[in-house]
Every structure is written in structure tokens, then in C-alpha cells.
Amino acid sequence: MTVNEVASVLDAEIVTAGDLNAEVKTACGSDMMSDVLAFVKDQSVLLTGLNNPQVVRTAEMMDMRCIIFVRGKEPTEEVVALAKQKEITILKTQHRLFTACGLLYSHGLSGGDRS
Amino acid sequence: MSNTLSFDYIVPGDDFTRAGEASSDVKHKLKKIGYDSDAIRRVAIAMYEGEINMVIHAGGGKVHVEISPEKIEMVLSDNGPGIEDVALAMREGYSTAPDKVRALGFGAGMGLPNMKKSTDVMEISTKVGVGTTLHMTVYAKR
Predict the structure, then answer these.
(1) Domain segments of chain B: what residues?
(2) Closest CB from B24, B52, B104 relative to A60
(3) Mutate to test the interface with A, among B106, B115, B116, B119 (most CBs of A within 10 A)
(4) What would the pLDDT profile of B16-40 be if each residue is shown by its tens digit?
(5) In whole angstroms, what is the distance from residue A60 CA to residue B114 CA?
(6) How far apart are CA A80 and CA A90, in angstroms?
(7) Which member of B66, B75, B89, B135 has the greatest number of CB atoms within 10 A?
(8) Where does the secretion signal sit in this chain (chain A) (predicted)?
(9) What CATH number should be reported for the domain whose range is B5-139?
(10) A43 occurs within a structural domain
């Protein structure tokens, strides 16, 4: 699905838009960026409740297209500014992490390969 | 004329929000050159983990990067506390990071193992009370 469709499935607000037509197939949900860096391979969506600029840095290093803040977390100005600069889409949803992941999974996104 | 580009960065120790700027810059440069994308990803991960480590543990440090068509070499050096037990530090899940670092999403004890996994060569020289230097190499083609 596209980033735009991800937003609609999660009833999410688009905080800042990168390429909304980018095609995404896999996602990962974590508040621990160390684990994202160590375990993620080709996931293009990151769902998290962690709210600091290193979330955007991590997504950038992993070539991710979209960050979704769950539980209605309001990304800080620094986070939004960095995401804009890196052309990464930021979405905000009221859903909790488990529910948001479940919704995306049931709409066809997968967790990607285990390695 | 050599085919090597080299860059130097200072990683500020007091500002967690700026950690990753050097890695981001290197990633950007490699993309511009048109370097192999898998190699770029591995360099970005290893260097970013290294930057985070320097900010968490060592009060910042320096990064020297050399890019040639065959490989990318990174030297990360700091004047931090050094690593007492390198074998232990290399173990997945072992971390000495304080709780405030975990609250920021790091300190899972995956940094050094992930740096080793992401690079083709990694050498650590460290002395307690003096500092740590990491040499990492990523080949353009694995």
C-alpha cells in the first residue's frame, strides 16, 4: 500500500509529508531504536511511541519512508523539522502500538524477513 | 591524484539530539557518489551506532572517514573511559548505559555487535581511562 493508504487505515493525521505515494510493504513497531538498528532489514515504516530526533535519524539510516507516532504522541518541533529535511513522512494516530500494527498487518503489510 | 575522499567530523558529547549528523552527512555523500546501496546502509548503521556510543559513553569524539571505490574506512576515536572488558561489551544484550539513555531508545546492548555485523572488518583498541578507537571497514561489494 502507499503511505497515503497507511494514513487512512490508521485514521492518522499527516504531520509532515514526504512522498505520500511511496509504496510500502513492511513495517516494524518498537520504542527501542537500538533494536530497530539491529533487527530491521528492509522495513519502510516505523511505528513508535518514542518521541525524540533519534527516531528520525534511525529511520533515515534504515531508509524508511514513514514514521508513525502512536497513542496520539505529538512529535516535537525538532522531530518534525528533521523529518522535513529528510523527506520522511510523519503520521500521528490515536491507536496504541499493538492496534496500529494489527490494523496495518490485516491490511497487507508484513513484518518482513526474520534474520 | 588518488581516488580516495576523506572527511573528518567532530561528534559533540553534550548534545544527544545532534548525534547522527556525521553519519547522515556521510550517507548523503555516498548516495551522491552513487555508491552501492547495501554498502551505504551498512556504513550508515555502523557509524551511527558509533556516534551514539561516543555521546552516551565518552563525551563525544572524532570520526575520520575514507571513501575509495573499493571500500569505506571509518576511524572513530574518543577520550572516554575506555572499555574494561571488550569480549563482554561485544555480547548482545550487555550494556552499561544508564537508564536515562534507555528512555531515549538506546542502550539495549546491541550497538557493538551490530557494528561488527554491519561491517567487514572491525577492530577495537581501548585503554581504560584513556579512550577507545574503532577501525571499521565496509567493502563496496561483500
Answers:
(1) 5-139
(2) B24
(3) B106
(4) 888 999 999 999 999 999 999 999 9
(5) 17
(6) 8
(7) B89
(8) none
(9) 3.30.565.10
(10) yes
